[in-house]
Design goal:
This protein is of the alpha+beta class and 271 residues long. The chain folds into 2 domains: 122 residues, no CATH class; 128 residues, no CATH class. It is 64% helix and 11% strand. The protein has 11 helices and 5 strands; from the N terminus they run βββαααααββαααααα. The protein has a 5-stranded antiparallel beta sheet with strand order 1-2-3-5-4. The chain is elongated and about 90 Å long.
C-alpha cells in the first residue's frame, strides 16, 4: 500500500493510494472540501444514509468474496436513525472497499475510486465532476510516463544485445577488465556520435550540472532511433565491418530515421 499521487480539486489536495493495482482515494481529504475541521464526521454522516449503505453493500457483494452479507442486512435493517462509521462498517461486514490508514501525512479514510466518486456526488455535483476530470488527467499522465519508460527500457535491452555482439567479435581473449570497458565505451560512443554528434565525455564536459547521461535527456524519437541503431550496429559488427564504416552508415541511418519520425510527428499534429 503506497500513497503515489495527489490531485487538486477546487483548492483541495486529495491523496490517492494504490492497493493491489486498484486506486483508493482519500475520503477524509475530499470531506475537507465541506468541513476541514470535522472531515471524519462528514464521512460518517454520508455512510449513515441507507442509500449509501445499499451502494456499499452492492459494491462489496460484487468485489469482495468474503463480504458478510448477513451482517450487512442487519446493519441495513436497523430500526431508527442509522449511525455508521468506517471502522464499524469494516468490523461488521469485513468490507474492503473502505479502510483507514494512519500516518501524519499519508493517513486518512480511503475508499475505492468507485465509492469515492459516489461520495463526491453527495458532497457536490460540481466537485465530483471536477474531481473525475483531475483523476482522468492523472491517469493520462501516468500512461504517457509509462510509454516513455517502456521505450527507455527497450533501449536498455537492445544495449545488452549490442554489448554481446561486441564481446563476441571485438574483444580478444585474455583482455583485462579495464581494456574491456574501454572497448565498450568506444562502441557506445559510435552510437552517441552517430546520433548526437558528441561522445559521452564531451557531453559531460558541456553539461557538468546534469545528472545521468545524454540518453536520459533524449527525446522519445531519439530513443526509438537509438534502439534501432543498437540492433543494426550489432549486425554490422557480426558482419565484420570496421568501426569507421559503421559510424558513417549509422550516421546516415540516424539522419534518415529522425527525418521519418519527425514527419510522422508533424502529420499527427496536423491531424
Amino acid at each position: 500500500m503506497k500513497t503515489k499521487e495527489t490531485i487538486n480539486v477546487q483548492g483541495t489536495e486529495i491523496k490517492i493510494t494504490s492497493v493491489k493495482n486498484e486506486d483508493y482515494i482519500c475520503l477524509t481529504d475530499m470531506a475537507g472540501y465541506k468541513d476541514t475541521m470535522e472531515a471524519r464526521v462528514v464521512v460518517s454522516n454520508w455512510m449513515s444514509s441507507r442509500y449509501t449503505v445499499d451502494f456499499l453493500g452492492i459494491w462489496e457483494q460484487i468485489n469482495n468474496p468474503n463480504f458478510n452479507c448477513m451482517e450487512f442486512h442487519t446493519v441495513r435493517n436497523m430500526p431508527g436513525r442509522l449511525v455508521l462509521t468506517p471502522k464499524r462498517w469494516i468490523e461488521l461486514t469485513n468490507a474492503i472497499g473502505i479502510f483507514s490508514k494512519t500516518g501524519r501525512y499519508g493517513g486518512g479514510i480511503f475508499a475505492h475510486k468507485d465509492i469515492a466518486f459516489e461520495f463526491g456526488t453527495w458532497l457536490s455535483a460540481e466537485f465530483k465532476y471536477l474531481m473525475i476530470r483531475e483523476f482522468q488527467r492523472l491517469k493520462q499522465d501516468e500512461q504517457k510516463a509509462l510509454g516513455w519508460s517502456a521505450k527507455r527500457e527497450l533501449a536498455k535491452i537492445n544495449y545488452h544485445i549490442h554489448t554481446s555482439a561486441i564481446k563476441r567479435n571485438l574483444i580478444p581473449a585474455e583482455l583485462t577488465a579495464q581494456q574491456t570497458s574501454i572497448i565498450y565505451a568506444s562502441e557506445a560512443d559510435v552510437l552517441n556520435v552517430a546520433l548526437f554528434g558528441i561522445t559521452a565525455k564531451q557531453w559531460r564536459c558541456e553539461n557538468p550540472d546534469k545528472e545521468g547521461n545524454m540518453r536520459d535527456y533524449a527525446s522519445i524519437n531519439e530513443l526509438i532511433c537509438l534502439s534501432n541503431m543498437e540492433n543494426l550496429n550489432a549486425v554490422f559488427i557480426n558482419e565484420g565491418l570496421p568501426q569507421r564504416e559503421r559510424l558513417i552508415k549509422l550516421n546516415h541511418i540516424a539522419i534518415q530515421q529522425m527525418r521519418v519520425l519527425l514527419e510522422v510527428e508533424n502529420r499527427k499534429l496536423l491531424n
